[in-house]
Amino acid sequence: MLLIKHATLYTMESDAAPFEGDILIKDGKIAAIGQDLREDSAKIIDASGMVATPGLVDAHVHTGGFASPSPDLNEMTDPITADLDAFYAIDIHSDDFQELHTRGVTAACFIPGSANVICGTGFVAKTAGGNTISDLSVLHPAVMKCAMGGNPKGYGKRGKAPMTRMGVADLFRSALRKAKDYLEKKEAAGEDKDKLPPYDAKCEALIPVLKKEIPLKVHCEQFDMLTTIAIAREFDCLYTIEHGWACNLYVDELVAGGGSVCFGPIGIAEGYGELTGGDVAYVKELDDRGLNVCLITDGPIAGPEALLISAGEAVRYGVPHMRALRMVTINAAKALRVEDRLGSLAPGKDADVVLWNGIPALETCARVQYTIIDGKIVYQSGNINL
Known about the structure:
Mean pLDDT: 95
Radius of gyration: 21 Å
Number of domains: 2
Number of strands: 16
CATH topology of the largest domain: TIM Barrel
Number of helices: 10
Strand content: 15-25%
Shape: globular
């Protein structure tokens, strides 16, 4: 058991204001939040002068799978690889993975790269506290990673489709149409094995998408967002917009579509085509209009410290501090459909807590003092003695 005393609590529950209080942790879960909590057998952290938040959640990373000269998360041999799974490509002992929890990131969605039109499934996992990726897994599968725009167009250089945005959209639709037909034949066959269609791994992987069990997680910017919304509507699928650069041009359409926007990373070099519209100021109107917005690092494209920097920049551009902090905690958890376990401090939720020496996303001095995952201290600043 662990008892955190006298912290300033940012619970991220609804619009609850910060307050000074205690957190009691038992069996990896938050047992109680309040004031003057006592538990004689608990280890105590005196968090006087510290700020407690939920662990940060990064909804879009390739961390642990991009370190090698040939990244293990980009299978660039077929534009449709729905049957691939990022779960088998993440090295939790890599330097970039090991850094995550030291920056307050306690959970992330690990996904394939964006080389293909349909890239494969991603999963949500904790960032420390286990010996294998299976130990850390929270939700698997969690998403179906897809990509619009310039990345999958690279097949054209090898004389294969797609080489245009027209080709990308066509392959996307064709794969979903084939999977829908496959699912209908399976359902019609019922228990009659002789009537089942020949096994198709790619179609099988897309069935959870068609059943709305997992969302399409689509790399897109500019007007690719409109194509994504149209395809999701056509096949009645859940979706999230990834990166979302220039989302300010399509606010009405994004709000009407209803899918979460996972914006970032910030700080892109403004240039030709897709590399425009990366100003984090654009998320304010989406948030004001009620859309679920979270901020992402695309790690290791940007390091885990960029998650908090992004939230701080959102504040600088007028997003209220509590709303910006939600974008890297509970909003990210909602985009990944794990808000029942992650993203806020409440009894019954996973005991993922970060203690800071300042107010994160508001005070630039804020640094991680403790990272606690599933009730275990997995990181402690060298400036602190237990």
